[in-house]
Amino acid sequence: MKASELKNMTSAELNSKLKELKSELLNLRFQNVINQLDNPHKIEQTKRDIARVMTVLRQKDAE
């Protein structure tokens, strides 16, 4: 997910996306613990996506 895509979203959509990504991260961590995760790099990607969404939300709040 690119930051330019996120900047075009509304705050409500960003909050929804943030909740979705956090639940996905929880599921990925659970799969990792029980050794069913195929791609461990997916956890890092999801964390970065969460950080991007939070950054864009803070930028919108500052405006």
Task: Fill in the keyword field for this structure.
single chain; 63 residues; mainly alpha; Helix Hairpins; 3 helices; elongated
Short description:
The chain is mainly α.
What does this structure look like?
By secondary structure, the chain is mainly α. It has a single domain (3-62), classed as Helix Hairpins (Orthogonal Bundle), CATH 1.10.287.310. It contains three helices and no strands. The longest helix is centred in the middle third of the chain and has 23 residues, at 11-33. It starts with a helix and ends with a helix. The mean pLDDT is 93.
What's the CATH architecture name?
Answer: Orthogonal Bundle
Number of strands: 0
Low-confidence parts: none
Radius of gyration, in Å, reads 13 Å
Measured distance between first and last alpha carbons? 22 Å
| Main sheet properties | none
Structural class: mainly alpha
Q: How much of the sequence is in beta strands?
A: under 5%
CATH fold description: Helix Hairpins
Tell me the helix content: over 70%
* CATH C-level name: Mainly Alpha
SS field, number of helical segments: 3
Name the helix and strand elements from N-terminus to C-terminus, one letter apiece.
Answer: HHH
Shape: elongated
Mean pLDDT: 93
Number of domains: 1
